[in-house]
Amino acid sequence: MVAPTAPHILLLVGIGVAIILANWLPRLFSGLEPAGSALLIGAGALVFLIPGMPAAPDPVADPRPWEWASEVCVVIGLFGVGLRIDSLATFRRWRPTARLLLIAMPLTIAAIAFIGWWLGGLTLAGALLLGALLAPTDPVLASDVQVGPPLEGGEHPVRFALTAEAGLNDGLAFPFVHLALAIAAAGLVDVPLLLGWAWHDLLLKVALGIAGGVACGWLLARLLFTWPRGNALSGSEAGIVALAGALASYGLTEVIQGYGFIAAFVSGIVLRRGEAHHHFNRRLHDFAESIERALTALLLALGAAAPRLLANLDVAGAAIGLALVLVVRPAVGLLALAGSDLRRRKRLVVAFYGIRGIGSIYYLSYVASAT
After folding, report:
1. Is 337 inside a domain boundary?
2. What pLDDT digit, counting tens, does each position of 214-273 carry?
3. Does residue 110 lie in a domain region?
4. Which residues, at least 6 apart from 227, have a Cβ–Cβ distance to it below 8 Å?
5. Closest to 43 measured CA to CA, from 64, 25, 67
6. How far apart are CA 304 and CA 312, in angstroms?
7. What is the pTM of this model?
8. 6 assigned to some structural domain
9. How far is the C-alpha of 259 from the C-alpha of 177, rounded, in Å?
């Protein structure tokens, strides 16, 4: 008599088959490089329908694992994005990114907050929180529209703008999340609350995030390329150092109360500047990308949880989501880039490709765990 298969064995089989199919099927039907995120979500929903599977994860009942998994995924993604940038060039090249961060992102938060209040009937704090959760673009799922690996060269201005935006706005959304939580806790908005938020959550923690990233990136560059002289780690091909560097820069910056997401991106940039043309940068990036893609298996769990989550979706919620993708992001993107050096077609591309993903999952899980 054959013993029944343990549920976790079935789960391992289902996960493996789903990931293979999500990456193989697009090549079969289109011949193009797969963008399997949607397929992973769909496969996750199907895997847990197989008889004998364990119960699908419930992010509402237990958000903490989702917070931890998405946090690590975003950190490694941000660090890898920093490593990708071949040339910082001049400030002129960063102008579209600056416009996206300083104009498009606040306008996105404000627009989604207004729609959430108007259509969803949310409170001020809830609407602001919704805007902050949906504002950051994703450094992981948007990798196909960003610059290529280190040393590839030829960085297109559109890809550069999307890469730098995704590298920074995950961290820059945090102040607005904290503002929404502070308003919810206080039950009102007054001048002392806004001043305290502006100093501590906006200015100080952003500055500490940048400083932590610079310090960790510089130290890591010395350890990889310089110390000890003649026997540096860069000769070992140990790509796991990328994972260690990302986690250390993030964690140490969080310890000093800075924004670790900003530090992870900045440390990747600073590390790359240590030896910008060294082949080991490609090794670090490729290892980080492999870990990052492995962690996107989180999307399978999201697909498995979709039936529970979609049960709460109403017309207003669907309208808010469609408005973000089809109206708000394109509109504020074009507004922010008006008068920039990018030509009209390039502005349209940048404005449209505001992909959301793992970062929003993290923020939502963070808030759910904190409340």
Report:
1. yes
2. 999 999 888 877 777 766 666 666 677 778 888 899 999 999 999 999 999 999 888 888
3. yes
4. none
5. 25
6. 15
7. 0.86
8. no
9. 12
